[in-house]
């Protein structure tokens, strides 16, 4: 049977001062007692070298002087009660069992209590390269990609214009039949996707044009400028993994591998749509904010302005 009445002392109103876990027993310092986040439980165990959650190596606790152990109610001293307070033998409470001010709240002129045990909130630090240059954020990457894909699509359409022109007679005939039907009061014809479908040869030629134009567009810009027009507008630059301020240009292998992995799934279209989406979202959870084409080419995208 525990010497500590279950459910007492009550937790400070309006907050839990400590997360659930094993803490030094307020009654017997040679063992630990489980705090369920609201009250002491009956579960005890012998003290171990590894302390409870929130305790550092060597017995120190975050925000507490060396050699003093916090309890679930904050403060210093075994069990979290100030010296002169705590439990009486037999399960009662001594006067002053809580820090001055009641329930862990200091009175006027008293020092503020230390923060509760547990993971402390940390200010997020922006991801950087090995020499401290900031990596490009996901929003900037997306904006640059949209600009580049618009430019690339215009170029690819120009080169693929002879293939698209093959569909023009079908569209012209459809409009002529529609006008004639309207003049005679007949039902207008239907234009189905099959009417506009390209032959297998034309589809392969179109895919090949898109891949070649994409390799030239992205590969040449990354090789010689380390940035595409979209990157230049957004203040981004492609560098090899390592120092972000490295003045060396990308090698042909890095530039072409990066372009190949980036543009081929996009050119093929619906067959690799999942890969395109995954590649676009990967910088959100990658520690170095790299997409799949960055990992393949061992590159990273930095923000230079």
TrEMBL record:
Chain ranges passing through the membrane: 142-165, 204-222, 259-281
Top-level taxon of origin: Bacteria
Region spans: Disordered: 1-28, 44-123
Biased amino acid composition, Low complexity: 62-71
Protein name: RDD family protein
Recorded topology in the membrane: Multi-pass membrane protein
Keywords: Cell membrane, Membrane, Transmembrane, Transmembrane helix
Signal peptide region: none
Family matches, as PANTHER family: MEMBRANE PROTEIN (PTHR36115:SF4), PROLINE-RICH ANTIGEN HOMOLOG-RELATED (PTHR36115)
Record InterPro entries: DUF2510, Pra-immunoreactive, RDD
DUF2510 domain location: 21-53
Subcellular location: Cell membrane
Main location: membrane
The RDD domain, residue ranges: 135-298
Residue spans of biased composition, Gly residues class: 72-107
Cellular component aspect of the GO annotation: plasma membrane
């Amino acid at each position: 049977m525990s010497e500590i009445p279950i459910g007492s002392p009550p937790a400070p109103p309006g907050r839990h001062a400590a997360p659930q876990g094993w803490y030094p027993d307020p009654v017997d310092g040679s063992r630990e007692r489980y705090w369920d986040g609201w009250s002491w439980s009956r579960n005890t165990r012998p003290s171990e070298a590894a302390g409870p959650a929130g305790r550092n190596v060597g017995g120190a606790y975050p925000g507490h002087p060396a050699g003093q152990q916090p309890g679930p109610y904050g403060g210093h001293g075994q069990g979290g009660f100030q010296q002169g307070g705590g439990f009486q033998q037999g399960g009662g409470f001594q006067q002053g069992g809580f820090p001055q001010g009641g329930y862990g709240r200091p009175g006027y002129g008293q020092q503020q209590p230390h923060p509760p045990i547990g993971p402390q909130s940390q200010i997020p630090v922006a991801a950087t390269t090995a020499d401290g240059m900031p990596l490009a954020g996901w929003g900037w990457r997306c904006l640059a990609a949209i600009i580049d894909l618009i430019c690339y699509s215009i170029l690819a359409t120009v080169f693929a214009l002879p293939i698209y022109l093959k569909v023009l007679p079908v569209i012209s005939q459809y409009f002529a039949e529609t006008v004639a039907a309207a003049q005679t009061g007949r039902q207008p014809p239907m234009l189905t996707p099959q009417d506009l479908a390209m032959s297998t040869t034309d589809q392969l030629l179109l895919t090949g044009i898109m891949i070649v134009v994409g390799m030239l567009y992205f590969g040449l810009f990354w090789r010689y400028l380390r940035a595409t027009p979209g990157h230049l507008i957004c203040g981004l630059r492609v560098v090899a993994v390592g120092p972000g301020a490295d003045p060396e240009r990308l090698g042909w292998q890095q530039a072409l591998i990066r372009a190949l992995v980036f543009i081929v799934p996009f050119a093929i279209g619906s067959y690799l749509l999942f890969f395109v989406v995954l590649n676009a979202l990967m910088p959100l959870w990658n520690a170095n904010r790299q997409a799949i084409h960055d990992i393949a080419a061992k590159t990273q995208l930095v923000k230079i302005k």
